[in-house]
User: Fold this.
Amino acid sequence: MSLAVYDTLILSDLHLGSELSRARDARHMLEENSFRRLILLGDIFSDLNFRRLNKEHWKFLGCIRKLSNPKREIEVVWVEGNHDQGLTNIMSHLVGVRVYQEYDWIYEGIRHLAIHGHQFDRFVLNNYLFSNMVSALHLHMQKMDFERKRLSRFVDRFNTRWLRLSSKVELGAMAHARLRHADRIFCGHTHVALSREEEGVAYYNTGGWTDTCPTYVTVDTEGVRIHEYRRRSDDRDSSEERSEDDSPFADFADPPGLPENPDYKSVGR
Ligand SMILES: [Mn+2]
Assistant:
């Protein structure tokens, strides 16, 4: 357990349901840190087909449910992303977390605002289906990355250069922060962690948890920091099935068998 107690810890773009989701690492990261507020900044789910969630994905949700227990006095906030739109009711029932479109708070007199960021991605808004296809393709390419690094890099360039997603979200977020009189604005969506400051407004992107280099952001008296998660040396992928029944986060290890609801099968339509 880390000695630091952060005011806020923010992570985004875990894409539960995708094979690339680093759900186990994300859960361990949450267990290793202390914080008074946790913001899940969108696209925690890849889509709303719960049959795609594996044991580790359910364990992450169990961890969130534990953290949101009022006794812990941690404010857990879910900000909707484009991949997990429509979760408001299901998430509040399943893990007891409130869902917001955007969430703002004041810490040490500084106005903070968290919003997923797809709102500033005109490509997503105008070409919803195609954009989701590109996003799915990108995840697929990352998976194939082990064998074909070049192809993945091409898709990375496609995403970052041709779509210029990262800078578009940054520009939109900066403008939105000014409109909302926020001093600091936090977004996800791009899967690229970064920080920028411009005329008194600070922009942070929390990155994501589908890549080789998962990131999260913390806020405390020393300011805002982007962390790269480093896996514990004793923690290996191959031990995935080892028994963790003694873990306080063992809830949801087995899917509770949610009733099938066709409305939650996919997003973007
Ligand atoms: Mn997104």
In short: The domain at 5-237 is CATH 3.60.21.10 (Purple Acid Phosphatase; chain A, domain 2).
